[in-house]
Amino acid sequence: MEQKRIQPLARDAMAYVLAGGRGSRLKELTDRRAKPAVYFGGKARIIDFALSNALNSGIRRIGVATQYKAHSLIRHLQRGWNFFRPERNESFDILPASQRVSETQWYEGTADAVYQNIDIIEDYGVEYMVILAGDHIYKMDYELMLQQHVDSGAQVTIGCLEVPRMEATGFGVMHVDDKDQIIAFVEKPADPPAIPGNPDMALASMGIYVFHTKFLMDLLRRDAADPTSSRDFGKDIIPYIVEHGKAVAHRFTASCVRSDFEREAYWRDVGTVDAYWQANIDLTDITPELDIYDGSWPIWTFAEIKPPAKFVHDDENRRGSAISSLVSGDCIISGSTLHRSLLFTGVRANSYSRLEGAVVLPNVLIGRHANLRNVVIDRGVVIPEGLVVGEDPVLDAKRFRRSEGGVCLITQPMIDKLEL
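Above: the chain's sequence. Below: its structure in token form.
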């Protein structure tokens, strides 16, 4: 007779978030911050989604490995994630690359970012490790993935997305049998293997892995002793288990958290300017694909103490208004018109300005008569009076970072170079 579980597996697990990546495809947005620290959705940072998933799943021990330009990320974690209490067997560790193993090396790869902190992990005595990427937007219950891991007897369970087969060429792809055991792991294949019984779809890695802790620690020590290894989960650790042990795929649809308003399983890699703009603007839809208003699965973040948003003036062509837009606290829309835009905290939009398809990061000042369309404006930028963006593609490309999709990324150094 099978023994019933007394408590959730998540209470005996540690979530380890890999948050050291730059995210160079986001261009100037990651000049001063790591990709996981990039703002998203009006209030949050990208990393808040992985961390919120862990917390909402019942995991109470979390570690975050940081490396590239980590100051703003560390500051955000200290401000917004400082409520864990050791007396409740909770912990939240920020783990910068600090040359703990060698006096000469930083984190050499994703596996090394865990290996260099083995002593910290083992001190907690957790049974399971949930390894997470810190740079994706999604809602997922890791408890369900832990349950599958234990029930299947796998040595590693890998979170996977079902994607159209020929769109999987940019992912690590799982070749699985009819029981979702992984036969082969192929990195960015030209001809991705199909899901059995579903020839048009493939299983792509989400960069989410579940291990028994002792097995993972032994594996990392073996990998660290191999001079030919690149110290990476996708390139070294996972292929080794696939070849010598048992690796099982966990389908995202089995543990994706959805409210009544979410039709599809939502996951986004907002790694390009176009993808970042689109995912933010999508939130302005009447019924967006991602429901950030679902109180049963909140996205935790640093909650700044700010006054409400304010809309002023009611004259013709000078009316503070917002249609199909998200406006955060401490914004003042002073005789400005917003349409399908998303404003982060502390934005000031002055009279006669118009914003359409604008993603505006915190503390931006928009001058009078500015007309901005399909833009991402970095934090703290001062938009001069009368600036027009989004009408002349050739001129826009000369002055700003214009993406393939026609979105203009605007930073203060770009503004400073303008001849007005």
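Residues 313 and 319 are 5 Å apart (CA to CA).
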